[in-house]
Known about the structure:
This protein is α+β, with helices and mostly antiparallel strands.
Amino acid sequence: xxxxxxxxxxxxxxxxxxxxxxxxxxxxxxxxxxxSQHFFINGLAQEKEINASDVCGGTDKVAKVEVQxxxxxxxxRAVTLGIYTPREARVYCKS
Length: 95
């Protein structure tokens, strides 16, 4: 039982959260698209793209683009030892 608690504690501390945001406009914005991006082997040499201009219908309508690794994403990464590394991506458009 002690080993399980230690392993759970280590997994908890190894997992972390991160968020990167690119803000084009501070005006009111609406979440237009949200998707999960799946990477393997810590995302080594892998790319996923979202064209925010296409999502919002023009470059001038993009308010914010955000990429986040949630707590659950970090736990999944820690449990699989980096083999599976998910993250969330969101595009906000001007309302």
